Amino acid sequence: MIAVIGRSRIEAETLTAKARVTGAAMDRPLPKRRPNYVVVMIVALLLLGGIAAISQLIPRGLRVTEGDIRIATVQQGLFRNDVVVRSAAVPLHTIMLDALESGRVEEVLVNDGALVAKDALLFRLSNPQLRLNLVAREADRAQQISNLSTLRVSIETSWTEHQRRMLDLNFALTQAEKQFTRNASLAKTGVVPVVALEESQDRLAQQRHALEDEKTRSVIEMRIKRDAVRQMEQAVEQLNAGLKVVNDAIEGLAVRAPIAGRLTDFRLQLGEIVKSEQRIGRIDDPSQFKLTAQLDEYYLGGVMTGKKGSVNVDGRDYSVEVSRVFPQITDGRFLIELLFTGETPPVMNPGQSAETRITLGGASPGLILPNDAFVNDTGGDWAFVLARDGRSAARRAIRVGRRNNSQVEVASGLTPGERVIVSTYARFGKAERLQIAK
In terms of Cα–Cα distance, which of 245, 242, 254 is closest to 99? Predict the structure, then answer.
């Protein structure tokens, strides 16, 4: 019994200890509260409003400073269909000096930039090989002339021999004819036998054949020899022509000015070796000039021969006309030449530049923007257009038409009064929107 009471006490103490550790005996269930949806919605709206306000305060797009850009307003005006370029004066007539023969410079009589008269001696070369060639050709010519003379003497001798043989044959033929005539008369009376008559007849035929043979042989011989003479004469003519070429080459070693003018790019030195066809300078006519200019390839279809224009020299305008168009494009530009059509400037120097205006067509109304850097950066396909408040600019697709040096014709995408950034877009990268700071 005592054991049962002791076990009950131990179990009671164990239960009391568990209750003290967990505190389960002290927990009480609380009633469940429902969420206040009105308050939640108010807090969400306040958060959204705050986010919207903050987003309005944060700049959108690439930030740029207004002082770093150029802005222009789209205007309705007249588009001037012309182009203004800087042209350079070049001589109208230029003769290039090329060495016809190689040689060593023995003498230089003028300096670069000098005004020279026509046929004035400029410099002199030496070429021993040409001298030797001249001597050899003269010897060949003399030998050929000697052969020709010998052949002509031979022809005269042959002709004389032919004439002598013809005389002998004609005399023998005459004697044979007389003998045959006598024998024929005597044979009728029986004084001369028939055999003697036949012999005289055969002799007569032989003489006639010998005469004809001499004539034929002489004609053939003379034709052959005359052909030989013609061939020799042609050979002599060729030798004379070759000799003239060598003489001209030797004379060409003393180089003279083909025209009067100013000597340019002439820098020969004594003792220098000049090669055949080497460019040694040029002579410019200082009295007449033309103009050359390089234009952007955009104008290649509009600039053509005959287009009129004007050039300003020393504050005065002179009329010019496009004379040549070179369609080859180099670095995005092509070359044109212009000629003065009326009065020319009294003084111009090679290389002198002048402002030149070329008229491509008449003026016409349209939407106008300045022809600034943005056209080259975008190809005229888009532009940054400012908002009404001027604090931002957005990229917009546009299309430009004709251009001149100061104007661009807007074909579509813009309206009068809108403002456009016309300075370079290189530093904007791929930005679609700009934030403009004052």
Answer: 254
> Which is nearest to 429 in space by CA: 370, 372, 373, 377?
377
Nearest to 338 by CA among 80, 86, 95, 94: 86
What are the residues facing 121 on neighbouring strands? 256
Within 10 angstroms of residue 92's Cβ, the number of other Cβ atoms is 17
Name the amino acid, one letter, at 414: L
Cα–Cα separations (whole angstroms), residue 184 to 109, 172, 200, 359, 361: 97, 18, 9, 112, 113
What is the separation of C-alpha 411 from the centre of its chain, rounded to a whole number of angstroms?
35
> Which tokens sit at 180?
């045959």
CA 101 to chain centre: 28
> Considering Cα of 263, then 266, then 271, then 274, what sign does the dihedral take?
negative
For residues 363 and 244, what is the distance between their CA atoms, to the nearest angstrom?
64
The identity of residue 69, as a single letter, is I
- What pTM did the predictor assign? 0.50
| Residue corresponding to tokens 């000597």 | 263
**Phi and psi at residue 99, to the nearest 5°:** -70, 125
Q: Are strands 121-126 and 364-370 parallel, antiparallel or unpaired?
A: unpaired
Residues 6+ apart with CB under 8 A from 86: 293, 353, 354, 355, 356
Asked if 342 contacts 319 with a C-beta cutoff of 8 angstroms, the reply is yes
> What pLDDT shows up at residue 60?
61
Pairing of strands 82-91, 364-370: unpaired
Give residue 291's pLDDT band: very low, low, confident or very high (50, 70, 90).
Answer: very high
Taking the chain, what is the end-to-end CA distance rounded to the nearest angstrom?
A: 103
Q: What are phi and psi of 191, to 5 degrees?
A: -70, -40
Which phi-psi region, left, alpha or beta, contains residue 23 (left: φ > 0; alpha: ψ -120 to 50)? Answer: left
pLDDT in tens, 106-125: 888 898 888 898 888 998 88
- Rounded CA separation 337/329 (Å): 15
Structure tokens at 6: 């002791």
323/305 Cα distance (integer angstroms): 5
Tokens 């943005």 sit on residue: 374
Question: Residue 410's beta-bridge partner residues?
Answer: 367, 400
